[in-house]
Amino acid sequence: MLWVVREEGSRDSIDASKTLCLMHVNEPVVEVYAPRTYYRGMDAIRDRNVFGALALMVSDDIVRAASSFAPEAGPAAAALALLDHEPGLSIRTLAAGVGLSHAGTVRLVDRLVSDGLVERRGHATDGRTRALHLTMAGQRASAALLGARDNALARGLAVLSPEELVTLSELSGRVLRACLRDVEHAYHICRLCSYGSCTNCPVEDELRERGSI
User: Fold this and answer.
1) Which of 141-158 are b and which e, b meaning 16 or more Cβ less than 10 Å from the residue's Cβ?
2) 127 beta partners
3) Bridge partners, 122 (sequence order)
4) Which segments of 111-178 are extended strands (E)?
5) pLDDT tens track for 130-183
6) CA distances (Å), 202 to each of 10, 59, 122, in order?
7) Do residues 30 and 23 lie in contact, with contact meaning Cβ atoms separated by under 8 Å?
8) Residues of 169-184 as b/e, b for ≥16 C-beta within 10 angstroms?
9) What pLDDT shows up at residue 11?
């Protein structure tokens, strides 16, 4: 309940559900009513907050699960998943995917090579470029971390019915397509995806429709 002091000094009650704001102009009180617009705007902010919290929770769970099967914390899990997704990547493309500088990616690959998970091979068309491939041990590590990632997602989404999960997937696909910038961004978005399980990938479909791939 809101109270408004009117010009003559009397106090009248106003139903808060019908009031957006009160603007005082000198002495008189001007009442502005726009409840539907106000509450719709507040609901939208609340809905974005809920989605933001969910996105962070899911992201944290994915990174934690995947990293537990990687040789080190950080982008190593993403590097293994990307090379499983697309064998033969260059350092430049891998750097875009994992979000490191060129020098940082070289050091990461050096460590993965030392761990026996990645090997450098000659590039098929560019003699100056080395192509990156998983070893058998790297393939096993990638399968383990992607399995852990899927288990984390399955636990988090278990509350949804199969029909609700389909709806969530369709909405997620729409947002992914709308927010996608370019091919390098696609590698970063999909850096921890299980590519073999992702039929009709919305990111790949969007790139294909744009003529980017």
Assistant:
1) bbbbbbebbeebeeeeee
2) none
3) 130
4) 118-122, 130-134
5) 999 999 999 999 999 999 999 999 999 999 999 999 999 999 999 999 999 999
6) 62, 19, 32
7) yes
8) eeeebeebeeebeeee
9) 43
Tokens (6 digits) for 178:
């709308």
Structure-block tokens of residue 100: 């490191």
Token representation of residue 133? 């491939």
Q: In the numeric block, which tokens belong to residue 97? A: 């995917």
* C-alpha to C-alpha distances, 162 to 62, 154, 165, 166, nearest whole angstrom: 21, 12, 5, 6
Q: How many CB atoms lie within 10 A of CB 108?
A: 22
DSSP 68: T
Structure letter (DSSP) for residue 20: S
The one-letter amino acid code at 169 reads: S
Per-residue pLDDT, 36: 57
User: Which tokens belong to 131?
Assistant: 């192509």
| Average pLDDT, integer, range 117-131 | 86
Query: If DSSP codes are grouped into helix, strand and coil, which group holds residue 27?
Result: coil
